[in-house]
Amino acid sequence: MTPAEKNWAGNITFGAQRLRTPRSEAELQEIVAGATTARALGTRHSFSTVADTAGDLVSVAGLPRTVEIDRDAQAVTVSAGLRFGEFAGTLQENGYALHNLGSLPHISVAGACATGTHGSGVGNRSIAGAVRALEMVTADGSPVRLARDDADFPGAVVALGALGVVTRLTLDLVPAFDVQQWVYEDLPQARIADGAGFDEVMSAAYSVSLFTDWRGGPVNQVWLKQQVGAAGVLQAPDEWLGARLADGPRHPIHGMPAENCTRQQGVPGAWHKRLPHFRLEFTPSNGDELQSEYFVARRDAAAAFEALDRIRTRIAPLLLVSEIRTVARDDLWLSPASGRDSVAFHFTWAPDTEAVTPVLGAIEEALAPFGARPHWGKVFTTAPETLRTLYGQYAEFEKLMARYDPTGMFRNAFLDRHFPHHEQ
What we know:
- The protein has helices at residues 25-34, 84-93, 109-115, 153-156, 195-202, 271-274, 301-309, 312-315, 353-367, 384-390, 394-404, 413-418; strands spanning 18-20, 38-41, 56-59, 67-70, 75-79, 96-97, 131-137, 143-147, 165-172, 174-175, 178-187, 207-212, 219-227, 239-240, 243-245, 269-270, 290-297, 319-327, 342-349, 373-374.
- Helices cover 22% and strands 24% of the residues.
- It has a domain at 67-175: Uridine Diphospho-n-acetylenolpyruvylglucosamine Reductase, domain 3.
- The strands form 4 sheets. Strands 11, 12, 13, 14, 15, 16, 17, 18, 19 and 20 form a 10-stranded antiparallel β-sheet that branches. It has a 5-stranded antiparallel β-sheet with strand order 4-5-9-7-8.
């Protein structure tokens, strides 16, 4: 690797000695068994140093690309390095769908699951919540398969690459469905000022996202993604809860081209063409940016919004856009939605780490009363001792790390900082 090798946003320069791209699982096993330290690399969309290493970066993108649908089990097994946009169409052609997708179809399935990435919807778990089995290569080069009925499984799905290099995942499927998407503008902030109002807004469609610039006044945009049901194609009213139906396609970031985004204005389309915000063939979001995200219990959504609104003058000057989404609870140990229905406050920042870092501290202080959990793959400054109090199985995960990786093969500075009690 060269010193110029960076992540997607350009805020991380990888310190790895080499980038290895094995073409078979046998080659991957040989690479891992012969390495001193190694880390799995996905599509480089993490903004934190979770994937960095001073040893070898290992990409599974070169492994054989498989999409195996099991109709009897209503499941699909896919290569870990596949991007969602590369296999969702195959599911659709066979009459199936995933229950949820993130805003970007550009990310790999393994990377998304390892960090707890998600879409939105009060009834929709994160993408990792669909995992029913995973296969990985562990520190000595041995293959391991874990399924939902295995005791280690809840700790192994959102595992930050700490247990091994994931090679394949088996995901739950649902019947294929169509979605209509509308954008409403200028939702009065009073509509989400209490828990009942917030739930009314966020429960209005299969997937709902709020976009705000934290400059006071109404919420800039509400994206409603409604599943097309037995009633057929729906018509959207010109006004909804005091917000106006957009008169054309919109991008979440003011001034960015709307053609980068998935089709809006109620035109029905397959689930994988509507649940993401951005189209696979275009650069997602802004590109040159930083991102952070914090999860609190959904019951605290209105109070958390009010707490952030009180520091909006700190947030707004550095912000490109902020998105608010809901995530249903799961039982995965390190999932930011573990054990509680959650609301996620996402921030897309100007690419200025020095200026953004103190603002993150202010956000974390404002959200501390609500036990805010940061997204593992985005920038945050939450102290390790605080993180330890936010996850009920934090110590159990450290024991799992010690058992699967006793020599610290997959450890890096990120894991050393946030899980310092690893048993060597």
